[in-house]
Every structure is written in C-alpha cells, then in structure tokens.
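Milestone 3.1: sequence recovery, worked example.
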C-alpha cells in the first residue's frame, strides 16, 4: 500500500513538472568570470539529475574497489567457518558410529578456523582419550588453554573428567584448584565430591558435604546415596570400638536403619565380637527394606538362641524370598547351630541348587561334621574343591 502511494505521488509530481515545462520552459543563466551560460530550466534540471547520478555511481564504484580486500577477507573467513562447521558435523557423526579416530581427525583439522573452536579441541581431546592417545589428548587441551584463556574453568572440568578413571588423584588436584578459583561453582563441587567418593577420602568428603548440601546441586536421592556412602565409609575406616560407638550414637535412627550404613556397623561389630543388639537392629531394618548383606550377616551372629533367630528368618520365606540363596544359606547356618541337622542341610542344598557358592559348600560340610557324618562331609569338601577349580579355569 505504501509503495502504491509513493508511486502515485511521484507520477503526479512528474506530470505536473512536465506540464509546467511545456507551457513555460523558463531560463537559467550561470555566470563564471567572462563565461555566461544560458539554458532552459528543464534542461538544467535534467542535467543536474544526470550529474547527481554520475557522482553517485562514481562513489559506489570507488567504494566497491576500496572495500574489495575486506570483501575477499570476509568471504574467505566465511568459507573457513563453513568448512569448520562441516568438519564438526562429520566429527559428530563419526562419534555416533564409534569411529573415534575419524572423529578426532575431523574435529581438529579446522579447530583454529571455527567460531566453536573450543568445542573442537575438547571433543578431539575426548576422542584421543578414548583411543588411549594421552599425549594427543594433553596437546589438544593445551591448545584449548592457549587459544581460549577465558575458558580455563570449562577446560579444567573436561580434563578432570578425562583423568578421573586412571588418575583420580590428578583429577582431584585439578578440581580443588578450580574450586579455589570459583568457590560457588556447583558443577566443580559435585565433580570433586564424586572424586573424593571414588578415592574413599571420607574425611575430605565429610568437610565438603555441608557445602554440597547447601548448594542443592544434586537431587535428594543422589544426596542421600552420597551421604550413605560417606557414613558407611567412615565406619569402614574406624579401627577402635569406642570410636565406632561414638560415631554410631551421633547418628539419627533413620540413618542407622539405612542398610548400607548398618551393614558396615554390623561387619565391624562382628569382627570385634560385639554382637549385642545386632540381631534386633537387623530385624528392624529388614522390616523397612530388604537387603541381602544384612540377611547374610544375620546368619553369622552367634550370640543368643539360634532357634529364635531361625523362626524369625523362616518367616521371611513367606514374604517372597523362597528362592533367595542368601536367605537359604542363613537358614541353613541357623538350623545347624540349633542342631536341627536335617533341616539345615536341606536349606543349604536348596541354596546350592540356586547358586553354588564355595562358602555354602563349606557350611554344609561343617554341618555334616557337627552331626558326626565325616564321610558325607568329605564328599562335600571334594565338591567344593572341584568348584574352586572350575572358578580358577573360568578366571584364567
């Protein structure tokens, strides 16, 4: 609509001027020293328009030649960017097919020309790492640092992740340095927590955990799992019964009932012969959540009347655990401890049918020995030896 209105105005103005010039062309007189030029208004007007057009096109032509080098540089740069994007796409496709060597080659060849050069270097470092080409990996990381000075945090995170499997201590040092540089960075905080968990440095993780919890960098489920590992690890490292009791008494009832934490506490207590209240703790925990390790430990408790524990453990069979080899092993141990030889041997044999473990063979043989059946025990020991030989062959 605007274009039509503009054309209409131009047409009307042009028609008006043409009509005016027809009736009276006018006179224009220009004097320059001794020179006098006289012409009609219409001719002067057309001359001015032509002069304006000539000057305009001369300026445009000069500008084009003046900007020609910049134009070619821009085109060359665009061409380089296009090639870099193509290389990045090829690299990502090769990565999807698991062709790490090709992916690395495509990513690195135009890293310097790409607007996303950092991604090229870091992805190429990952591909080199996957090929165990650690020198190339380190070279790409060094080039990334050299060309992207402001991205040291990102580069450090990638390097820490790549080194975490084979060089966890080095990864820890990198992450601790990054955390000093960026104390509020939650990603660094989470990565460092995972490395400390891998290194089983529970004291350092305990110091870091309040910051991690405050940051809300991980969800509640992951936080709970990390906290379980933290306290279970602390219990595992304790070498003094008094220190164990001190730590245990500081824990909340909910934390004490956590299978992973309770299992470590029971394991330590069994090793030191402190079995008082262990059966009750395990029974209460199993009412909340089933855990094979706690069931296994329940059968190793020697303090108290085994027949009572046997009745409790047999009630677990009715709760969907009839084919659980760990429960059957525990039932066999408790029945043999209660001198119910036949029942105990049947439980142990049922466990062996489901999962033939050397420990179960040994427990069955001991049960036969306690009953006085030495020859039967010898046969079971022989089966256990054969089982060990089979395990050795499979490992070799």
């Amino acid at each position: 609509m605007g274009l039509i209105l503009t054309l209409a105005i131009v047409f009307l103005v042009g028609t008006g001027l043409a009509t005016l010039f027809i009736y009276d062309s006018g006179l224009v007189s220009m004097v320059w020293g001794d020179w006098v030029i006289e012409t009609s208004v219409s001719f002067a007007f057309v001359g001015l328009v032509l002069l304006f057009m000539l000057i305009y096109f001369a300026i445009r032509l000069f500008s084009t030649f003046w900007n020609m080098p910049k134009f070619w540089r821009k085109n060359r740069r665009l061409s380089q960017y296009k090639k870099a994007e193509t290389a990045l796409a090829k690299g990502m496709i090769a990565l999807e097919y698991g062709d790490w060597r090709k992916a690395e080659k495509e990513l690195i060849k135009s890293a310097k020309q790409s607007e996303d050069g950092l991604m090229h270097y870091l992805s190429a470092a990952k591909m080199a790492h996957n090929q165990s080409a650690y020198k190339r990996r380190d070279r790409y990381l060094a080039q990334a640092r050299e060309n992207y000075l402001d991205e040291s945090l990102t580069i450090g995170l990638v390097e820490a992740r790549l080194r975490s499997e084979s060089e966890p201590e080095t990864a820890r040092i990198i992450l601790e340095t990054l955390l000093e540089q960026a104390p509020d960075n939650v990603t660094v905080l989470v990565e460092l927590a995972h490395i400390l968990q891998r290194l089983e440095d529970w004291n350092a993780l305990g110091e870091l955990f309040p910051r991690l919890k405050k940051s809300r960098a991980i969800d509640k489920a992951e936080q709970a799992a990390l906290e379980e590992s933290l306290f279970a690890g602390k219990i595992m490292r304790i070498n003094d019964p008094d220190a164990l009791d001190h730590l245990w008494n500081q824990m909340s009832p909910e934390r004490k009932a956590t299978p992973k934490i309770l299992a470590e506490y029971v394991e330590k207590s069994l090793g030191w012969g402190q079995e008082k209240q262990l059966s009750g703790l395990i029974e209460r925990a199993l009412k909340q959540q089933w855990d094979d390790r706690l069931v296994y430990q329940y059968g190793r408790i020697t303090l108290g009347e085994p027949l009572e524990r046997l009745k409790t453990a047999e009630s677990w069979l009715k709760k969907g655990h009839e084919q659980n080899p760990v429960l059957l092993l525990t039932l066999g141990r408790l029945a043999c401890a209660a001198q119910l030889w036949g029942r105990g041997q049947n439980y142990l044999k049922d466990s062996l049918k489901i999962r033939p473990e050397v420990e179960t063979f040994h427990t069955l043989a001991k049960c036969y020995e306690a009953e006085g059946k030495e020859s039967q025990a010898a046969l079971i020991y022989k089966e256990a030896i054969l089982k060990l030989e089979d395990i050795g062959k499979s490992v070799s």
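Residues 104 and 124 are 5 Å apart (CA to CA). The radius of gyration is 42 Å.
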